[in-house]
Design goal:
- The chain is about 40% helix and about 25% strand.
- The chain is an alpha+beta fold.
- It folds into three domains: about 1-65 and about 215-395, Bira Bifunctional Protein, Domain 2 (BirA Bifunctional Protein, domain 2, 2-Layer Sandwich); about 90-195, Herpes Virus-1 (2-Layer Sandwich); about 405-510, Rossmann fold (3-Layer(aba) Sandwich).
- Strands 3-9-10-16-13-12-11 form a seven-stranded mixed β-sheet. Strands 20-19-21-22-23 form a five-stranded mixed β-sheet, sandwiched between helices.
- α2 (about 40-55) crosses α13 (about 375-390), α5 (about 100-130) runs antiparallel to α7 (about 140-165) and α5 packs across α8.
- The longest helix has 27 residues, at about 100-130.
- About 35% of the residues are buried.
- The chain binds adenosine-5'-triphosphate.
- Adenosine-5'-triphosphate binds near residues 218, 332 and 375.
């Protein structure tokens, strides 16, 4: 565990040192849970967004995009339920004065039982090797069964308290399970209170009053209120989807996990409109497609899992999260929800406008049902960094830090390095960059030894380094060095474009996602 925390700290400082993520307003001591992306961070973030956007709009003929405004009519948030119910249960520890989400404290307790079970399984798997029968072990081993039972009891009680919105019971669970504040170590808790996460501000001048407006806490509502605009102008036929990438804002209670939980963040959401009754089929389909999208990145299939929801939001009839194994455990990166016709019906009610679709095949109108896929760009960014960060011991006793980023997402694709700063080598390097820069983000570096320059590129995840030496002007060949294997190969300059394209093209990722 300590090792994992250590890893997380290293990733955070690596992000800062190599221009990926900076604390916002740093010279003024920062602003809680707000971050800026640096020169490498913004490239990685843009590549993640492109990977998502193209996977939605290119691979699916029936998915189109929009870009709606952050400010929206305040009644939208009434209709969506956010004004009344976008709350988190908060609890304070009176000794440390630290604030927590009561539900998260209890979830962590549940995770402890899971950890205990996993440890038993790992231990036994090691002991029995190939002969290990996981299913049998899990269903018979006394300590596993005991922890499983404890977990289920707590889970049922927790789910019931959440469903009934019973804040006293949430507190009682924390008391009964002797959950302590990680900072003070005490059980001196306040009551549990509800806290609305929306940021509000005012719009308009003072003359005829101002209107209270909200910074959107999700991008989805911008899609719902434009549903008919897109359907009509795009002549879309159900089933079809609308995708959007944009900023969202939440006044999160606990903000101590770097870019995992931010107050200003970015979402990539897609609402898929379907016939009522067909939603669960589409839910299953999108669940599968989205997992493939994650796994195509090659960070390791075992790092992802589904977490099906027991407590469904009042509007949902199925929901799952895709979780990624962060340094601080498996955490939600994406949510997939079957939202029924809740949002469109509610907007119909509040706006007085029909939000219906005439289905020519059925010859009737209805309010479509919706499957939503919702993923945070920043969480995705963190999952990719966590999955790519590696400290490797080399044969010569040195070590290197390397970001094994999926090549298609790497901020810089190619570094071009003249062996020396003279003899026409820098000019040759410039020539190569000029030929490749229209297709790839290239970086020129002539400072320090080649070894140091390789390390700098490893640290930002550049998949290829190309070195120009004294033979290059004569034989038109360069040495290409591969980030992961550190293998070097002499290739003709003319081959570079094809070698790089083969590895960095998103096409290779897309091919793994398309469901035939
Ligand atoms: P959590 O339970 O972690 O607060 P959530 O279930 O409220 O998340 P959703 O409302 O389903 O999250 O939002 C969809 C996605 O948006 C999440 O899967 C996550 O990737 C991202 N997201 C939500 N809140 C934040 C945040 N505060 N900072 C960064 N990303 C976020």
């Amino acid at each position: 565990m300590a090792q994992q925390e250590d890893l997380f700290k290293k990733i955070v400082s690596h992000c800062k040192e190599y221009g990926f993520v900076f604390p916002s307003s740093e010279i003024y001591d920062g602003l809680g849970a707000v971050y800026d992306y640096g020169q490498n961070g913004v490239e990685l973030k843009n590549n993640i967004k492109k990977y998502w956007w193209d996977s939605m709009t290119l691979l699916n003929e029936n998915v189109v995009g929009i870009d709606s405004a952050i400010f929206m009519h305040p009644t939208i948030w009434k209709a969506s339920g956010h004004v009344d119910a976008f709350n988190d249960p908060l609890i304070d520890n009176k000794d440390s004065k630290k604030r927590y989400r009561a539900d998260v404290l209890i979830e962590e307790q549940i995770a402890k039982y899971e950890d205990k079970i996993n440890k038993e399984v790992e231990k036994a798997a090691k002991k029995f090797g190939d002969a290990f029968d996981r299913e049998q072990f899990v269903s018979t081993h006394p300590r596993v069964l005991e922890n499983q039972a404890k977990k289920e009891i707590l889970h049922t009680r927790f789910a019931q308290a959440l469903n009934e919105n019973n804040l006293e019971e949430l507190r009682q669970i924390i008391v009964d399970y002797e959950i302590v504040c990680p900072v003070s170590g005490t059980r001196n808790w306040t009551e549990v209170r509800q806290f609305n996460l929306m940021f509000a501000t005012e719009m308009g001048s003072t003359a005829d009053g101002t209107m209270k407006v909200y910074l959107r806490p999700e991008t989805a509502q911008g899609i719902f209120v434009n549903f008919l605009n897109v359907q009509k102008t795009g002549r879309m036929k159900i089933p079809f989807g609308i995708a959007q990438i944009g900023k969202a804002f939440r006044n999160e209670i606990v903000a101590r996990q770097f870019i995992f939980r931010m107050r200003e963040f970015e979402q990539m959401e897609m609402q898929f409109f379907v016939r009522p009754g067909e939603e669960l089929e589409w839910f299953a389909k999108w669940k599968e497609i989205r997992m493939k999208w994650h796994q195509a990145l090659g960070l390791g299939k075992h790092k992802y899992r589904y977490h099906d929801h027991d407590k469904l939001a009042h509007y949902a009839n199925a929901a799952t999260d895709i979780e990624f194994e962060m340094p601080f455990g498996f955490k939600e990166v994406e949510g997939i929800h079957s939202r029924t016709d809740f949002d469109l019906s509610s907007h119909e009610k509040y706006s007085g406008k029909k939000m219906q679709y005439f289905d020519p095949e059925l010859n009737k109108s209805y309010v479509p049902y919706v499957i939503e896929t919702s993923i945070g760009v920043d969480r995705m960014f963190l999952s990719i960094l966590s999955g790519s960060y590696d400290e490797e011991m080399l044969e010569n006793g040195e070590s290197r830090v390397v970001l094994r980023l999926p090549a298609a997402l790497a901020p810089v694709k190619l570094a071009v390095l003249p062996l020396v700063k003279k003899d026409g080598l820098p000019e040759k390097a410039e020539e190569i960059i000029h030929a490749l820069k229209f297709d790839f983000n290239c970086q020129y570096d002539e400072k320090d030894s080649i070894g140091k320059r390789y390390r700098r590129q490893d640290a930002i995840g550049t998949p290829f380094c190309v070195t120009i030496d004294h033979d290059t002007p004569v034989d038109h060949c360069v040495t290409i060095r591969y980030r992961d294997s550190m293998q070097q190969e002499r290739v003709s300059i003319d081959q570079l474009h094809a070698i790089i394209t083969d590895k960095v093209s998103m096409k290779n990722l897309f091919k793994q996602i398309v469901v035939q």
